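CATEGORY: protein folding

GOAL: derive structure tokens
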Amino acid sequence: MTNKPFGVNLTFLPTVNAPDYPGYIRAIIEGGVKVVETAGNNPQKWIAALHEADIKVIHKCTSVRHALKAEAIGCDAVSVDGFECGGHPGEDDIPNFILLPRAAETLSIPFVASGGMADGRSLVAALALGAEGINMGTRFIATEEAPVHANVKQAIVAASELDTRLVMRPLRNTERVLRNAAVDRLLEKEKTLGASLKFEDIIDEVAGVYPRIMQEGAMEAGAWSCGMVAGLIHDVPTVKVLIDRIMREAHDIISQRLAAMDRR
């Protein structure tokens, strides 16, 4: 597909059946991948092998303390995830307008901004807050090339910033998801069971649902990650159109709106 360097994501999260992580590491190295974004649990045990293969490691963090730990164990950069993000925002609930400048004050390694990123405004704001760039998840799902069912893309376009919910908070495995019938059932279970909630109580809503949603388009099958940024997503462009538009918007903001401040 490309002769340019590319990266992959490797997520270490609690699962019913643990993936073959050593096999994934071997495939990454043998496949010539140059950048790995790790997420979830501490990636320290894999960093030496990845660095030996001249692979850069970016770890996704939802707090400054976790970012400092990633720096200490040898990660080359971090992706700082604000509370707005889809998926797992951590348990501190700190949005990017606070989290990004705190990261800039504290870290010595580069970082990119994740959560709430969708357009040129996002990019310029992230740069102003100290990030080196932006990382987009939900926005990239709603592109022509994204290998997910059209129903998923249309659900993102149809959603507003008010349509996500936080689930699994009692388990300290919080996930931001798009609201649907399964999410409503899950939240009702959490409310009813309270502190006695166990993963087994919500397994029907969260385990093994992604293939049904992402591949088959069964949008009520279970809980699936989506960021609040859905409220800023109004179309399903090609990736090229999206990136070109973001860069054009960012350039216009910097050269026109922000440059005007110097002329006053």
Residues 137-264 form a domain with the TIM Barrel fold (CATH 3.20.20.70).
